[in-house]
């Protein structure tokens, strides 16, 4: 049976393509020529920590949800809970480097 046949349950004689026609919506359908009223505005938001200095920084986050976690000891560079020789070596590895 042909795809362009009225016997095909997916055949659309009117050539209406239903979908969201608002370009800023998360589910925008550029092929739609008839709005189906189903535009979604919040589903494409990614909640997370947006502060790049936080331990749980999420580079894909679009909404800061207040979940940022910061180290209580900035000198603990290796995150083992103590300031020791490894932290000093990590610091000295970058000492004198130009920051971009």
Q: Mind explaining what this structure looks like?
A:
The chain contains one helix and four strands, in the order E-E-E-E-H. With 100 residues, it is largely without helices or strands. The protein has two domains: 1-42, no CATH class; 45-95, no CATH class. Strands 1-2 form a two-stranded parallel ribbon. A two-stranded parallel sheet has the order 3-4. The radius of gyration is 26 Å and the shape is rod-shaped. The termini are far apart.
Topology:
Blueprint: E1 18-19, E2 34-35, E3 47-48, E4 63-64, H1 85-94
Parallel strand pairs: 1-2, 3-4
Radius of gyration computed on alpha carbons: 26 Å
Structural class: little secondary structure
Which whole number gives the mean pLDDT?
85
The total beta strand count reads 4
Tell me about the biggest sheet? 2 strands, parallel
> What is the percentage of strand-forming residues?
5-15%
**Helix-strand string:** EEEEH
* Total count of helical runs of at least 4 residues: 1
Residue windows where pLDDT falls under 50 for at least 5 positions: none
Helix content: 10-25%
The termini sit apart by 63 Å
Short description, anyone?
By secondary structure, the protein is largely without helices or strands. It has one helix at 85-94; strands at 18-19, 34-35, 47-48, 63-64. The strands form two sheets. A two-stranded parallel sheet has the order 1-2. Strands 3-4 form a two-stranded parallel ribbon.
């Amino acid at each position: 049976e042909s795809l362009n046949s009225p016997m095909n349950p997916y055949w659309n004689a009117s050539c209406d393509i239903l979908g969201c026609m608002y370009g800023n919506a998360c589910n925008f359908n550029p092929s739609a020529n008839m709005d189906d009223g189903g535009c979604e505005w919040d589903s494409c938001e990614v909640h997370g920590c947006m502060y790049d200095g936080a331990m749980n920084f999420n580079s894909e986050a679009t909404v800061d949800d207040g979940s940022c976690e910061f180290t209580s000891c900035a000198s603990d560079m290796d995150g083992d809970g103590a300031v020791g020789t490894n932290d000093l070596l990590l610091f000295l590895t970058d000492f004198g480097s130009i920051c971009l």
